[in-house]
What does this fold into?
Amino acid sequence: MSEIQPVLALTNIHKAFGGVVAIEDFSLDLHPGEIVALVGDNGAGKSTLIKIISGVYKPTSGEICLSGETSQFADASEAREKGIEVVYQDLALADHQPVYMNLFLGRELTKPPFGLLDKARMRRETQELVDELDVRIPSASSTIRDLSGGQRQGIAIARATHWASKLVLLDEPTAALGVAETAKVEELVLSLKKKNLAILIISHSLDQVFRLSDRICVLRRGKQIGVRKTADTDKNEIVSMITGVA
It folds into this structure.
């Protein structure tokens, strides 16, 4: 895997808010078709790191390279333009809008000559995508608020799949879901891997981490404790790294 250029290379990332250090000297490469799990207790710095990668925060120091090019994102929209999509735990979906408008939120398709919304095309493309990913919803015209938690999460991941060309960041994508819906979302995450995207997932569930990931990166109080190949470690080692208790 080392011969393949990483999609994302973080080098010596440091982030401080005033005098409080949130991330200290973090380095990680992410490759196409790879799932890396980011684990650690609350306050370890996981969400801060996701926000740095997605352009919400700028690192205090350190380097971000995207497909070999040093990148400085002015904001989250610039990171999206460069092929990075985020699925947050709170989804960031518009509850009162139909599924197809959520999929194209901020990127609506229009038709000439007057720039009217091309709702038929957006509906059609959305339906094709949810069918391809097997996201089971009544239709692309369903209103988000009428869908279950798992269906909503499926739509959020479908949107990321549609727009991401390089990297998908998943922040606790199944935290509020039951067993069956979690299994469905995990299938979707694995489908992103098959599309050769790089995936960074935050999860508190070590069972999920071991089911999905190729590598596991452990953070503790803003410090990178280590990275392990999932196949070469076990839950006991990862728990020890998270807690600092041998």
User: Anything to note?
Assistant: Residues 8-95+149-243 form a domain with the Rossmann fold fold (CATH 3.40.50.300).
